[in-house]
Write a structure and sequence with these properties.
This protein is mainly alpha-helical. The protein folds into three domains: 46 residues; 49 residues, no CATH class; 32 residues, no CATH class. The chain contains six helices and no strands. Helix 5 packs across helix 6. The longest helix has 33 residues. The protein starts with 12 loop residues before the first helix and ends with a helix.
């Protein structure tokens, strides 16, 4: 949008302010119109809200899935309280074998170095550096 400015030799400050206000308003309207158009386009792309029936079906499906996991746990000899932690695709036969065998036991688990706070206090600097390099978590516990 262009403005017709009447040609004069001089303008009063109020006239200049009026020209500036009209120009700013025009540019603001252009931007607002452009963004309103973009918003409408994006809103048209949004998925529709699920209906009450669709929500009810989803709730029933979730309840059935939960019940199925509970039954699978019970059949596999797994405590039913754990059912909520399993996905629908969980292999309950394999889980049953793990529970019956005592569960998973890590093989390369770091054991405590058997060092007490007194032992740490008696160590020289080189021994403390070695402890830091081999077990930084234990070192941090002693240096707090």
């Amino acid at each position: 949008m262009t403005f017709e400015i009447e040609q004069k030799d001089s303008y009063t400050p109020d006239e200049v302010q009026g020209f500036i206000s009209k120009f700013v308003q025009s540019e603001t309207d252009k931007v607002r119109t452009e963004y309103s158009r973009k918003i409408k386009e994006l809103q048209a792309k949004l998925p529709a809200e699920p209906s009450a029936a669709e929500k009810a079906i989803a709730e029933r499906t979730a309840a059935l899935d939960k019940r199925e996991r509970e039954l699978n746990c019970k059949a596999a000899g797994i405590p039913v309280e754990y059912a909520e932690y399993f996905s629908d695709k969980a292999d309950f036969v394999k889980l049953s074998e793990l529970f019956k065998s005592g569960g998973y036991v890590p093989q390369n688990h770091k054991q405590g170095a058997g060092i007490t706070k007194d032992d740490f206090a008696k160590m020289n600097y080189a021994q403390q550096v070695k402890l830091y390099q081999t077990n930084p978590e234990l070192f941090k516990q002693f240096t707090r």
